[in-house]
Amino acid sequence: MKIQTILGISLIGATLFATSANADVRDIRIGVDVPYEPMEFRTPDGELTGFDIELGNALCAEIGIQCEWVVQGWDGIIPGLMARKYDAIMSSMTINDDRRKQVLFSDPYFTPPSAWFAPSDSAIEVPYPQTLEGMTIGVQRGTLQDNYVTDNFGDVADVNRYATADDMVLDMDAGRLDIVFLDFPVGKATLIDSNAGDYKVIGEMITEPKEYFGDGFGIAFRQRDEDLAQAFNEALSTLKDNGTYEEIYGEYFGSK
Amino acid sequence: MESLTTWIEGLLANNDIFTLQTLSYYGEGLTTTVQLVFLSLIIGLILAVPLAIGRGSKHQWIKMPIFFYCYVFRGTPLLVQLYLIYYGVVFIEGIQDTWLWVILEKPFVPALIAFTLNTAAYTTEIFRGAIKSTARGEIEAARAYGMSWWLMMRRIVLPSAFRRALPAYGNEVIFMLHASAIASVVTIMDLTGAARFVYARFYAPFDAFLFVAAIYLCLTFSILYLFRYLEKRLLAHLKPSGQ
């Protein structure tokens, strides 16, 4: 037997052994929908980054597994998890009862408010169904903001549903939308921070009713992967205790 | 009406997905799809007839622009054309202040423009082929009768060309119906848009898309039936004798 063959076989053996040492929680793939600044987006050179990505990588490092990010459009993100295209979703997904029927959630790792954004010359002061009558509202399709707007404003206003947040911002710039309803951090990053002075927040931060806005963002797993969810919950509480969570949070949203 | 609503509600009891509300989305989607496809086909057809005649013209400056238009619209995906017309136009400086913005603001008209231009390009090519294949003898006979060019087109060439184009045009109508499924990318709630909404809300791909597929099948079936009827009436002379 040639020396290369022996080396090759032992290398394969070593790799097999190395993976089986950590057999209880294996390396995983995590589904994410980009762009959704500042939670997940690409840097100008194409690298994935954002609060979810950095926290996810920190969690995986804490558990001691390799995590690979898989980019998947939002409206197929839960079916993709079921179809085993990836093993977890960490993509600003709000925990709510409808989704709990389909997936298993980790503990919440972040609780963002939703908020209304409109051009700075907009006359809307408080968004009630009466004040938004006949207006065009933009939401991202299939989000909890979509459900909230559809149920509460769908009868009086036009609801335009977009596949990505970027398309929505483009149409807002074009003047096709009177107002949009978004996760506050995302709206702040894409509308306010990158177009100084063109847009403003309308009304207050919205986190109620719980029936729509749920309990914050969670990492979603398949129902049967309880061990995996457990491992992420433990890692999350460790990161919160040792200050790593605080550090990443500060980087994206300023200190608490 | 009241009893109909209660009857439907009874049928839908214990059903999370197909409630009266989601069915009304599908209903509105059906109306939008039919309007969009029907209008773009009608306008496309009206545009295609002169274009097809011009496409066969001897004059380069009539023929070439039409050839170029057909080449561009048949050579690029409809989705790209739709994106250009809906999202692209907003980058034209100051368009928001012109009268054009009134029609381009809502997604329906940009989608209608994209679909119309696309179907007109295909229909032009279909008609051109049919006009070109008019039997030489018919044209010579018309000339021998002393018909003017216009009279010959109207009485001889176009009627027989339309008949020959009918089967191919039937295909184009069905393709257009299926192509209209992309309207939902520019926020139009057409049939597919309604299905995507239901899918995203209930995470039920099978229920949402099988239901909409069934509606598309019904639409396709009616189109097929209509064209079968037209072919039977208008192409009766081409049937093998004795049948």
Question: Which key features would you list for this structure?
Answer:
heterodimer; A: 256 residues; alpha/beta; D-Maltodextrin-Binding Protein, domain 2; 2 domains; five-stranded mixed sheet; 10 helices; 12 strands; 40% helix; 19% strand; elongated; B: 243 residues; mainly alpha; MetI-like fold
Protein described:
The complex is a heterodimer of chains A (256) and B (243). With 256 residues, chain A is an alpha/beta fold. Chain A has 2 domains: 23-111 and 215-253, Periplasmic binding protein-like II (D-Maltodextrin-Binding Protein, domain 2, 3-Layer(aba) Sandwich); 114-213, Periplasmic binding protein-like II (D-Maltodextrin-Binding Protein, domain 2, 3-Layer(aba) Sandwich), CATH 3.40.190. Chain A has 10 helices and 12 strands. Chain A has helices spanning 3-20, 51-63, 77-82, 97-100, 144-153, 165-174, 184-193, 210-213, 226-242, 244-253; strands spanning 28-32, 41-42, 48-49, 67-71, 88-89, 104-105, 114-119, 136-140, 158-162, 179-183, 199-206, 220-221. Chain A has a 5-stranded mixed sheet. In chain A, strands 9-8-10-7-11 form a 5-stranded mixed sheet, with helices on both faces. Chain A is elongated, with a radius of gyration of 21 Å. The model of chain A is unreliable at 19-23 (pLDDT under 50). Chain B is mostly helical. Chain B has one domain (21-235): MetI-like fold (Orthogonal Bundle). In chain B, 77% of the residues lie in helices and 0% in strands. In chain B, helix 2 (20-55) packs across helix 6 (108-132), helix 3 packs across helix 6 (108-132) and helix 4 packs across helix 6. The model of chain B has no long low-confidence stretch (mean pLDDT 89). Chains A and B meet through strand 9 and helix 6 of A and helix 9 of B.
